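Re: weekly structure request thread

Next one in the queue (270 aa):
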Amino acid sequence: MFTEQQIARYSRHIMLKEVGEKGQQMLFDGRVLVIGVGGLGSPIALYLAAAGVGTIGIADADTVDVSNLQRQVAHQTKDIGRPKVVSAKEKMVAMNPDVQVNTHQTWINAGNIREIIGAYDFVIDATDNFAAKFLINDACVLAGKPYSHGGILQFDGQTITVRPGESACYRCIFPAPPPKDAIPSCSQAGVIGVLPGVLGTIQATEAIKYLLGIGDLLTDRLLTYNALRMKFREVPIRRKESCPVCGPNPTITELKDEVDALNVCDLQSS
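Done, posted below.
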């Protein structure tokens, strides 16, 4: 049962017929992991906390740099040099003390990802490199864990939601990472500061809808966004028989780190 203060806090949710008090309790009982607490992860983490998702994991080994502050809204000037998970948790709990924030101050890798994602209902990929993105996809598919992929670069973003066994996965679209340094990084090519806010809130919405069991998830549809033209485009995606991880004859059955893809940015050209 919610207290009077909690009912007031979540009143705009509770008055929605698709949510109500029962749905708000489902959010409070939900467990979401956000991998990466930078440009994408910042709005995701803040909105999940504001929405009352009861347990939120945030995973990142990086520290706050002054160049992050143009877009990573969970961090402030005073946070420069602090671990991102510590900085983000501080803002999340200040916004909503109801939520439990678990910090994973580590780089996600093939050796630890199974254990970390195992404690959560839904995973959000808010990382900035291909190695992590392919690893998250493979781990979630092999574990049967639903997740949201997101990527940004310059003025463009993309996102898709994956339900293992039911929808196409990331490797159905991109079977393997591009060659090292084939695509410039954000530090080389730049990124407009508001872009991760648009994509990140979409990813947070997908997590909330999944926990509530409402609406249509962004499965089998790659949503792309160009901020300069202010245009969204939806690309239909199908599961591929040849997919190396979710196809009927998978060649990827064990997790490994894509070491050759570590230095590229987080939006693969399609």
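The domain at 4-261 is CATH 3.40.50.720 (Rossmann fold). The first strand starts at residue 31 and ends at 35.
Next request, please.
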